[in-house]
Each structure stands twice: as structure tokens, then as C-alpha cells.
Amino acid sequence: MAASDGASPTRALPLARPHLPQAGPYTLHTLLGSGGFGAVYVGSVAGGPRVAVKVLTFEGHGARERFSAEARLLHQLDGRGFPSYITGDLTAARPWFAMELLEGITIDEAVRHAGPMSAPTVAAVALDLARSLHRLHGLGFVHRDVKPANAVLAGRHATLIDVGIAKGERGLDLTSTGEMIGSAAWAAPERLLGDRATAASDVYGLGLLVAYASAGQRPFPSGDDARTVAAVVDGQLDLTGVPDALRDVVVAMTALDPDERADMAQAAAALADLARGEARTDEAPRSRAKPRPVPRPEPEPAPAPVPAPTRIPVPPSPTRAVTAPTAPVPAPKPPVPAGAEEAVQRLAGNPRLAASLRAAHERGYDRAAVAIVARAQRRSHRRAVKALDPARVKATVWRGHGWYDDQHADRRRFADTDEGWAKERALVRRGWWLDKAAGFTAMLGILLVVVAGAGERGAGARAPFGWLDSLLPFVAVRDGRGLAWDLLALLVAVGVLLVLGVRWSREGRVARGVGAPQSIRIGPGLLAAAYAVVGVATVLTILGILT
């Protein structure tokens, strides 16, 4: 799958190709995503804003042509519902182009962190995406991978990414021929049956996105196995949790037969009505005049191809991607509280919170981290901190450290919830105490052996086993000295005690798991030392040196 254009910075990874530190005037920093023939990095110029820079990384047949076609498509879209094209050099030895870096989170991340959205909010966001897709269709292209992970939220607006997988209805394909785009859970049924993607396929994907964002769960099972494919092809859509206001729209957009689905204009009109309902609820009373209907947009003729840009000067700042509305939808953004950025940085920089978030991330509890931030907000006395969105603070921390969700999912032992994280912490504490108990047992064993081997001064430690010397026969060792049965019995008792300590240490290691917090473990080292001391003392006792 192609690299995500303007991908969410919460997915930032370490720079994958350090031998490519520059792309034109831009210095490359972190990798946002990579795919079949391109990789997207965070880039910047001295004194300028950060941008997303896509670099051609695969020199296969037709790769340069597809890469150039993607740049031209972004240029034609002009930032209306898609990342804005800034500059590029498509004739360089390593072609590249720069586009707007979207500062926000995807719909998928927003739902997983904060739960389902309200029906009017989903309608307003989906309306943005519908208008963006209509512009893409007007240029003769089909997106083919409309899903929550490819829609970035910034405030109350949504922007589509990943135009590198678009396919032209006139034959121009920005991906390799025959490549399956996306996962089966988000694909239109006709795509899984081998038919080509059309505008109706994007309508279907948008319908699934609306269902997921409003219900908080996938309409189909996740994965690409036969069960998922069968559910999609048979139309076994799970709309549990979808509000009644959106259910009819989703059903109309996800009909099995592409010819029976609502077209994009009809879907946009229905979504616009729901979005206006939100505006009437949130704002002051309006006139009772009937709002203007959303006209069905006429398909625009495909513009003439734009020549590949070569070494366009870098502008002072990237243009913001704004979706131009086809009809007025009064839904203003909520005001950002004063000092919000300072409050985010203050909370994200709290050492105690930072340690807790690092521990949660390194054990795979990325979604539980939102609840950790919320608890820290409740403890704060600052109003600006209490008013923050916990998911936003969590995303800021993840972006700052280059972390991404499910990076350590294999370490997680419970559900990625606050309750699961509480169970994980309880196990870690149990493992800590078991480790310390094992270490204390080892120290006690070493002390008993040392004291018992110190001649007459060790008689107190060996006293409980003195009856063995009178019961067992005298065995001469050397210089008229006999085998110290009481000392040997003490060594055996200490050995049994150490076996118990080893068991505690193993249980503690399993309970502690992998990842932070990892305090100093004293049990294994002390137990090894104790076994060495017991072994040496046993040999010396048999040789008659210790009596």
C-alpha cells in the first residue's frame, strides 16, 4: 500500500533511510509512512514550518510515472480536502515533492481513544469527506481506500490522505497493476469479487466510515481472512450502535449492488441535513426559513494535465488544506481556550505523568494512556489543564517521542483499557515483592552458612541439628576430625530454602512481564551467589576444613 500522504504524526517512526538526509532544500527528520514506491518524512527548512516530504524509494517499471502522476493530482486538488501540494522536483535523481503536514489525529485514532462520535458530528465530518471525494471523482480518479485511518481530523474538519492509491477512470493507475488496496474489512464487495473500483466503491467506504465513527466498532470483523471476506461479500453488515439518524444513510451507502447505492451527491445532501441539525442545536435560534437545499453537483470536466513541477521555490509556509463547501453549513469550530498549548506542554512535561505514560506504552497499553492523562488532569489545580482533551495530550506525548499505537502490543497481557492497565500494574507490584522475597531468602542463606562455618561461633546456627552428631556414626576425615553432620544438615536446609527462593524469583519474573517499570532485580544474582556459597561450604565440610 502506498505511503500515507500527510499521515498522522502520531505514527512517526525513526528515519528509515539515513543516507537520504535531504530532499531538495528540506532536511528529513522522521518517517511518517512508507509503501510500494514512496516514503513520507517530516521535513523542514531553516526558519520554516514543518512539511511532509514524499520521496521515491522504488525504481521499478513505471514508478517515476506514477510518482509524478500523484504529485500532479495533488497539485490539481489544490488542498481542497486533501493535503496541499507545496513544491517538488520530479526530475531529480531521487524524485520528491513536499506537501502540507496535517497536524491532527485520524478518525480511527479518535474513536479508539475517545469512543464513538455523536451523530451530528459524524455527519459534519463525513460531509467534508464526501465533498473531497466528489472533487477527486470530478478529476477522473477513484480513491479506492476510504477508511477511518485515511481521514485526519483537525478541529471539526476532516482531510483525506493517501491519494497515492487512487486510480483514474481513464486508465491511469497510481499503484501497480492488479494490486489489492487496503484490507478486506474496508473494501467494497465488488472489489473483493474482482471488479474494478468506481465512485460507488468510495461511497461504500464512506458509509462504513460513518458506521464505525458513530458506533465505535467495526461493521465487519477485522482482518483479511475468509470469514471477513465472506461477511463483506454477503453483506453481513453489523450496524449495532449506529444511531437511528444515521442508519438509513449508512444502509443507502452500503448496498451490495453498486447500482443501488446512493451516489455521492445524494449522500452529501443527507449528511448536510444532519450537520445543519447540529448547527441549529449548538448556535443561537435562527430564522425559520427553510435552508437552501444542497444542489446535486455536476461532474466537472477533467482538467488538462499539469506538467511535472521542477524546482519550484519553497513558499514561506504551507497552505492549509480547507474543504471548500458546496453549500453553507453553519458549524463553527469550538473556541480554543487561552493558554491551551502551554497547558498541554506543562502536563506532557510532568515527570510523574511521563513515567506512567512511558510504562503504559512500553507494555502495550496505548489506549489506556488516555485514562492516565485524565487522572493527572483531575489532580491538577490549573483550569487550563483540566479543560484539555486527554487524547490530545496523549497524542502530543506520542508524537514527541516518536511512538505509535500497538508498538509493543505483544507485551500486553490484558485488554488495552484502564482496567487492564490496573491489572498489569498489580502483577508488576506482585513480581517486585516476589523478587525482593527471593533476594532476602538468598541473603539469609548466605548469612547462615557463613556464621555456621565460623568454628565455635557457629554453634548457635548448627544447634537445631546437633542431635545428628550423636545419632549418626563417626566418619573420620583428617587430623582426627570427623564429618560435621550438623553443618551438612544445615547446608541441606539452606539449599531447600534457596529452592523456594528460586521459585519466588521465577514467579516474580513472569509477573513483572516485559517493559517498564523495571526496577533493579536482586533475586537472581543473590540466589546464584548463595548457591555458590553453599556449594563451596559443602566441599570444605567434607574435606574437614570446616568443623
From TrEMBL:
Positions that bind ATP: 54
Positions of region (Disordered): 275-340
Pfam families named among the record's database cross-references: Pkinase
Transmembrane segments: 433-455, 483-504, 525-546
GO MF, one example: protein serine/threonine kinase activity
Pro residues: bias regions: 294-318, 327-337
Compositional bias ranges of the Basic and acidic residues kind: 275-286
InterPro entries reported for this sequence: Kinase-like_dom_sf, Prot_kinase_dom, Protein_kinase_ATP_BS
Residues covered by the Protein kinase domain: 26-274
The name this protein goes by in its record: Serine/threonine protein kinase
Organism: Mumia zhuanghuii
Biological classification of the source: Bacteria, Bacillati, Actinomycetota, Actinomycetes, Propionibacteriales
